[in-house]
Design brief:
It is an enzyme of class 4 (lyase). Keywords: Lyase, Metal-binding. GO terms for molecular function: lactoylglutathione lyase activity; metal ion binding; methylmalonyl-CoA epimerase activity. The chain is α+β, with helices and mostly antiparallel strands and 135 residues long. The protein has three helices and eight strands. A hairpin with a 4-residue loop joins strand 2 and strand 3. The model has no long low-confidence stretch (mean pLDDT 96).
């Protein structure tokens, strides 16, 4: 089952500039910055009450975020939902007819296992599933 919205992902051209904008907007600094080399992105996370905003900037011109920004410009890239059992959710969603972009969860930012559902089946919204990595 899906839990709360884990975060909103916002694609940006320049992470440093976006951090300045969101620091002013939200009245607080990002609590975490992290590179995710497998996705060729640098991320920053802001808390807004119980919710999070993830800023994503490409570190490579051929990354998914770079292509997204080139095609659509900066803005909301995905909505992420917390799940308790990401593998079970992927099986369930595939049975429901959704196109799963990651057959196996992969390590993402903020100590999470992540997988994505194609936006063609979700009214144009890229959906990310997130499960806390327990080590």
């Amino acid at each position: 089952m899906f839990g709360k919205i884990e975060h909103l992902g916002i694609a940006v051209k320049n992470l440093e500039q976006a951090n300045e904008v969101y620091t002013k907007l939200l009245g607080r600094q990002p609590y975490k910055s992290e590179a995710v080399e497998s996705e060729a992105v640098e991320t920053s996370f802001f808390m807004t009450g119980e919710n999070k905003i993830e800023l994503l900037a490409a570190t490579s011109d051929d990354s998914a975020i770079a292509k997204y920004v080139a095609k659509r410009g900066e803005g909301i890239h995905h909505v992420a939902f917390a799940v308790e059992d990401i593998k079970a959710e992927l099986v369930r969603l595939e049975k429901e007819g959704f196109q799963i972009l990651n057959k196996e969860p992969k390590r993402g930012a903020d100590n999470k296992w992540v997988a994505f559902v194609h936006p063609k089946g979700t009214n144009g919204v890229l959906v990310e599933l997130c499960q806390e990595i327990e080590e």
